[in-house]
Amino acid sequence: MPDCHESYIVNSQSCRPDLLTILNSAAGLNHSLLLSLTANLCRFTAINSAMRVALQTDPTATVFGEDVAFGGVFRCSVGLKEEFGASRVFNTPLSEQGIAGFAIGYAAMGGTAIAEMQFADYIFPAMDQLVNEAAKYRYRSGNEFNCGGLTIRAPCGAVGHGGHYHSQSPEAYFAHTPGLKVVMPRDAREAKGLLLASIRDPDPVIFLEPKALYRTSVEDVPDGDYEVPLGVAQVLRAGADVTVVGWGAQLRVLAEGCDMARARDGISCELIDLRTVLPWDAATVAASVRKTGRLVVSHEAPRTCGFAAEVAADLQERCFLHLQAPVARVCGYDTPFPLVFERHYAPDALKVYEAIKKAVNY
Amino acid sequence: MFRSALTRSSLRACASQMGETGKRAMSSGSITVPFSREYDTHKLPFEMPKEAVTNKEELLGYFKLMYTMRRMEITCDTEYKARAIRGFCHLYDGQEAVAMGVEAAFDQKDSWITSYRCHCISLLRGGTVESIFAELLGYSEGVSHGKGGSMHMYSKKHNFYGGQGIVGAQVPVGVGLSFAAKYATPPGEKTPVAIAMYGDGAANQGQIWEGANMASLWKLPMIFCIENNQYGMGTSKERSSSNNKYYTMGNHIPGVRMDGMNVLMVREGMKAAKEWCSTGNGPIYVESDTYRYHGHSMSDPGTTYRNRDEIASMRTARDPIEYVKNLLVQHNLADPQELKNIEKDIRKEVQDALKAAKNGSIPKFEELYKDIYIGGEDNSKIVYPAYIRMPDRAKSIGSIYERGVSGM
Question: Is A114 within a domain?
């Protein structure tokens, strides 16, 4: 595992320019973007700020995971150990199942556990602990115990060069588990508020951080303590012709698709960020679909049994007579996350645009 | 501040059902009992005792509780076969001395988590025979309000974090409990300990190593307690484990093995383990060599992989309750008739508890969707799923078309 992480922690000082160029071309990114990414990684990020607030306001809050005391591979916890001490911010062994169980035990005794899975792709060894121990603790004990103080953070999603095991978006697996909450923010400002809400939520939360959002400049993020409520979607753009729904970093792609549709065809899209995948705000989406009569749902994860399937099924129940076109899904393909064909695999803006146009012209 | 169990008041020891019998030693009329078998040790930097000091009051206390456990489990067997108890059911008879010895060495600030074989630990930690039966029968008077069943009994007040259904999964959770105990203890003070019990069959689960490594790395007050009852379901330890000395499995973590059929040996072993862990030395492995009379669960007759002679010889030679009875009689602390009368009383108490439990009430329908999530201002509000179709449609919860947040 460790050698895979290193490509994410290179910074412009330690990385030779020619290597940066190679990384850039592999990532399909322009040079300046990668430079700005690495510069920001060394500063306080939104996630870092949220965890700092949590540690300041809750003396039982602890932050742990693989390499987090050193700042974590994405620098999210940088400076926290120095500020709050090694008993509250510490490294764990590479033991995902152990980390999850350990965090559940700490939370069961009333502590606030903020545990990091280094990549969402590594969360699967902890599946039993999360699905069987965490999610059901309250239910099986008749509310005698719970592990509401548990928040599992995990970086997810595509970054351009992650390959099979540094790119996946596992939200649908956890959305199938009553007792868990699943959150995925779209940008840095949202990430801070949603993470604080997740940490303080009385139920266990899987907090998936799209790796792409780590690039967002920290200057956009308010200082201080604020929360963005869980389970509440947000209408980002009002529109009349088609409802476009997503979560996480996909919102940026969807916005681009909506822009194309407006510019080329004059289509007015209503863009909605679900923000919380479980429990999801179906009422907001349904209100929109009743108005527009069309729905496009999109995510990076594979199409079959992805969470878009749930949105589509639920919305056709709610809005059957309002629909003027089949609900469209723009998703990853049903393949492992590819290394060399990521750009083909990705549900990019063009695919979104195509789906929007098809829905409107149905 | 800690939100729940770690508050100072709740950490205060709760008076146990066993009264003070387990803790009050050295009163008048104490006897010294040498152990017929030595502790086996692994990298243990201190000496284990060779004898225990006890008295009539303690021994009678152990005898009564262990006999109650025995009768309770045997009654479960009958009720299961009569189809009053359904689902999964794993019985503890034969292993009583392990739980009894642990509780006698502990105080109730020490947290305890175990596997699905949890009825008798519940009895020591907040449950009553009646509430345990009620749980098994699925009634709302049960220890988990009828929502857990055989494998899931808990008591926050008594720091019992319950029975867990997945083999081995309780162990890293137990490590988290020990971390919380250490976190909440001011430097220099003795920490309460956490114990996770698991069987020989679970001992090779990978996640136990993950938890053990963390416990050792961070010197957590954690007791890894292997209840070696010789069979992981139907597979004997020789056929399932390349290392049958489970107390050595922590590698550099010290370990000790003891006769799990001898309550005094378990008690003294656990006292030593607790002292080691609570003074900042890190974890310890403790293996209790024990035996279960019943099969693994009610669907296992327990006779296909071992013969009846083995079970019979174990009952004759090593029964943990007979051991305590013999001590009482040999040392003239009780006469056989007195013990018979106690047994008779307990049999009746258990039957009465069963009768009372059978008058329990079926949980309300709302229990189906309660305790999944909570919310509201003070996090006390039940959050309901979007739609539940009740037998009476008019009483259904929510509406498919009007519901707000889906999945809630």
Answer: yes
B53 forms bridges with which residues in the sheet? B32
* Å between B283 CA and nearest CA of chain A: 14
Cβ pair B2:A110 closer than 8 A: yes
Domain assignment present for residue B2? The answer is: no
Say yes or no to pLDDT of A1 above 90.
no
Q: How many domains does chain A have?
A: 2
| A231·B408 Cβ contact <8 A | yes
Chain A, 26 to 65: residues with Cβ < 8 Å from chain B are: 59-60, 62
Tokens of A314: 């639920």
Task: State whether B169 and A143 contact (CB < 8 Å).
Answer: no
Nearest CA-CA distance, residue B355 and chain A, Å = 23
- Best of B125, B132, B145, B179 to disrupt the A interface (most A CBs within 10 Å) is B179
Per-residue confidence (pLDDT) for residue A159, from 0 to 100 = 87
Is the pLDDT score of B10 beyond 50? no
- Positions of A marked active-site: 96, 166
pLDDT tens, B116-134?
999 999 999 999 999 999 9
Give the DSSP H or E segment for A137: helix A137-140
Q: Do A154 and A50 have their domain in common?
A: yes
Would you state the pLDDT for residue A8? 30
Q: Which of A177, A128, A92 is nearest to B206 (CA)?
A: A128
Give residues with Cβ within 8 angstroms of B83, minimum separation 6. Answer: none
Of B154, B372, B401, the CB nearest to A144: B154
Number of domains composing chain B: 2
Inter-chain touch B172–A141, beta carbons under 8 Å: no
- A157 to chain B, closest Cα gap in Å: 24
Reported as a single tens digit per residue, the pLDDT across B302-361 is 888 999 999 999 999 999 999 999 999 999 999 999 999 999 999 999 999 999 999 999
Closest by Cα among B333, B381, B361 to B27: B333
Domain final residue pick, A158, A192, A220: A220
Q: Which domain holds residue B126?
A: 8-358
**A160, A185, A220 - which closes a domain:** A220
